């Protein structure tokens, strides 16, 4: 059995790491393709280094990322002839991999696997939504994280036999790294546990809208009762430079963190504010209340168990959500499972034994 792992962004690296670790342990033949979607070291390079991943193919693209990646990755698929191609999530890397795979479907010798299948925001203005829908309908094996995701796939008439509910590999990643978390970043930033807020913003719907971004940042600048740590995404950094934005002492901008530091900030924050899907999951697992600054979420399980509150871009809803979490105690169970990567290995072995090609 030969497996191709395709990744290109920080979230993909973080979520595919535990599967790669298990593949190594099981001595299964695999190789990694890095599409180069995230080029900045702080966004992906430090994670490749931290997780000690050996990348066989590093792609370089110029202006047309998707079209160039399709051509280059197709050559790799034809050369390597893997039994399985594994894509994770909803990035442009996933889209390019899926479109390249479609050229190979006549042979039926290679199977495409979509990890984190079935997530839906039901907002097709989001590029991620379209990417994940295409990935689900093209893939041969769909690994879904929750019952919500399973239901979405069934509602789209995807064959039941293709779908496997396994949980989310982010649970494995956090479990693997939890004991390594230290307080160095807290000391460096002069923070006390549960006495600060954490803020992350990067999605185009927010950061590309000057009015929305200015309103949200002004709001957080006005919160003087807690320090707010803001690891700033390069995309957001470029937008802030163009804003009449004033920085106050309580809003502390820092560069993107290494993974352990970011886990430490999430675990020790009193509240997390984000527009990130992955952070919603991590906050949930780490038992830190999360407030999501978006119109929708593809993680409805977090809303159901009250680990997360969706506030759109409304200051009124933001205030209400903060009041709710500061004045009520909530507890919840991790909805993302455990030993997820081992389940994936088992599914692959069983499928391969039935369909030795």
Question: Element order, helices and strands?
Answer: EHEHEHEHEHEHEHHEHHEHEHEHEHEHH
Specify the CATH architecture of the largest domain: 3-Layer(aba) Sandwich
CATH superfamily of the largest domain: Glycogen Phosphorylase B
Question: How are strands sequenced across the largest beta sheet?
Answer: 3-2-1-4-5-6-7
CATH T-level fold name of the largest domain? Rossmann fold
Strands, count = 13
SS-derived structural category: alpha/beta
Radius of gyration: 20 Å
Proportion of β residues? 15-25%
Please tell me the overall pLDDT: 91
Supply the CATH class of the largest domain.
Alpha Beta
How many H/I helical runs?
16
How many domains make up the coordinates? 2
Summarize the amount of helix as a percent range.
40-55%
Largest sheet descriptor: 7 strands, parallel
Backbone shape: globular
* End-to-end distance: 9 Å
Runs with pLDDT <50, length 5+? Answer: none
How is this structure best summarized?
With 357 residues, this protein is of the alpha/beta class. It has helices spanning 10-25, 41-50, 65-80, 92-104, 127-138, 147-155, 170-177, 184-188, 204-207, 210-221, 234-240, 259-268, 277-286, 300-304, 315-327, 340-354, and strands spanning 2-7, 29-34, 57-58, 84-88, 111-115, 141-144, 163-165, 196-200, 227-231, 251-254, 271-274, 290-292, 308-310. It has 2 domains: 2-168 and 337-354, 3-Layer(aba) Sandwich (Rossmann fold), CATH 3.40.50.2000; 183-327, Rossmann fold (3-Layer(aba) Sandwich), CATH 3.40.50.2000.
């Amino acid at each position: 059995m030969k497996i191709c792992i395709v990744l290109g962004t920080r979230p993909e690296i973080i979520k595919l790491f535990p599967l790669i670790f298990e593949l190594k342990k099981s001595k299964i033949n695999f190789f990694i393709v890095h599409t180069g979607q995230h080029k900045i070291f702080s966004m992906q390079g430090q994670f490749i280094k931290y997780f000690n991943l050996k990348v066989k193919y590093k792609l370089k693209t110029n202006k047309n990322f998707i079209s160039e990646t399709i051509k280059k990755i197709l050559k790799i698929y034809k050369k390597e002839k893997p039994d399985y191609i594994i894509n994770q999530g909803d990035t442009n890397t996933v889209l390019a991999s899926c479109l390249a795979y479609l050229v190979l479907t006549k042979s039926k010798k290679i199977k495409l696997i979509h990890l984190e299948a079935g997530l839906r925001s039901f907002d097709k203005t989001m590029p991620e939504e379209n990417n994940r829908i295409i990935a689900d309908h093209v893939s041969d094996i769909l690994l879904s994280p929750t019952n919500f995701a399973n239901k979405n796939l069934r509602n789209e008439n995807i064959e039941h036999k293709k779908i496997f509910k396994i949980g989310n590999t982010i649970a494995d990643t956090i479990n693997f790294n939890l004991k390594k978390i230290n307080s160095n970043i807290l000391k460096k930033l002069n923070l006390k546990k549960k006495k600060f807020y954490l803020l992350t913003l990067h999605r185009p719907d927010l950061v590309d809208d000057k009015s929305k971004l200015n309103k949200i940042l002004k709001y957080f600048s006005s919160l003087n009762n807690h320090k707010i740590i803001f690891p700033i995404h390069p995309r957001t950094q470029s937008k802030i430079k163009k804003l009449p934005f004033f920085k106050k002492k309580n809003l502390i901008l820092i560069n993107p963190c290494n993974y352990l530091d970011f886990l430490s900030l999430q675990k020790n924050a009193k509240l997390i504010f984000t527009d990130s899907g992955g952070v919603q999951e991590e906050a949930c697992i780490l038992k830190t209340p999360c407030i999501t600054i978006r119109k929708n979420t593809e993680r409805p399980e977090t809303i159901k168990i009250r680990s997360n509150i969706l506030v759109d871009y409304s200051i009124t809803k933001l205030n209400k959500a903060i009041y709710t979490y500061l004045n009520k105690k909530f507890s919840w169970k991790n909805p993302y499972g455990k030993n997820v990567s081992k389940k994936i290995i088992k599914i692959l072995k069983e499928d391969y034994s039935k369909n030795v090609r």
